[in-house]
């Protein structure tokens, strides 16, 4: 029996593409929300969950950083997926026939140049794959969808144009979540460690907490803050660093971090995706 990997969205979503790209032998399980995808793993309906955390054009995915610490799940891998946007239409439709295109607002904003050049109006849909499904159901040759080529294959739509995004390097980073941690050193690109922490209520606590990473030569690739529980004084930080907690320099940096924080939770230790570069 193959592994089941849960993702948020409909078949053909970019999260679905991430599942197929990273685990080609697994069975993808579409879920309505991020919480549903997480719960699928917690309830043993799925073995893993594929969650988007940030996009190179639009930044972090809302809500994910708030959800991660309370899931009880562990990051075991990361996956970088190129977001290729295709213009999809009902079979036999020429490009000149398209009057409007439906998609998630984020994708519509990424194809302004192409849509403007062809006089195509933008129609906001619930999501990318759902828009492709709706266009297939409407069967209106004047209406197209902006979605992944995978969505075109699934819903039987023609690809009139592909790679039409304004930014040619548009990429989304995904995290693979598992009910059990896996800190084994895998791959050839090194390891990553992700964690959340809250600093102690002392002057320059964050500055002092970060000092250990600088003095021990640990590269911090991400540091983000967000409020906890709606409080303006309780701030939690999310961080990604290069290295494994068993590495001498990382161990020293984490030890110093622990001194200046009230709480540190390691979310996962996992191989660095070579596509990160």
From TrEMBL:
Q: Which GO terms describe its biological process?
A: L-phenylalanine biosynthetic process
| Gene3D superfamilies noted in UniProt | 3.30.70.260, Periplasmic binding protein-like II (3.40.190.10)
Q: Which InterPro entries match?
A: ACT-like_dom_sf (IPR045865), ACT_dom (IPR002912), Preph_deHydtase (IPR001086), Preph_deHydtase_CS (IPR018528)
Entry-linked PROSITE patterns: ACT, PREPHENATE_DEHYDR_1, PREPHENATE_DEHYDR_3
Reaction(s) catalysed by this chain, per the record, are: prephenate + H(+) = 3-phenylpyruvate + CO2 + H2O
The record's Gene Ontology cellular component field reads: cytoplasm
Q: Indicate the segments forming the Prephenate dehydratase domain, all copies.
A: 4-179
One MF term in the entry's GO annotations: prephenate dehydratase activity
In which pathway does this enzyme or protein participate?
A: Amino-acid biosynthesis; L-phenylalanine biosynthesis; phenylpyruvate from prephenate: step 1/1
Keywords (A to Z) from UniProt: Amino-acid biosynthesis, Aromatic amino acid biosynthesis, Lyase, Phenylalanine biosynthesis
Q: What EC number(s) would the UniProt record show?
A: 4.2.1.51
Q: What class of enzyme is it?
A: lyase
Q: Where is the ACT domain?
A: 194-271
Q: Which SUPFAM superfamilies match?
A: ACT-like (SSF55021), Periplasmic binding protein-like II (SSF53850)
NCBIfam families associated with the record:
PRK11899.1 (NF008866)
Write the protein's name.
prephenate dehydratase
Tell me which species this is from.
Roseovarius nanhaiticus
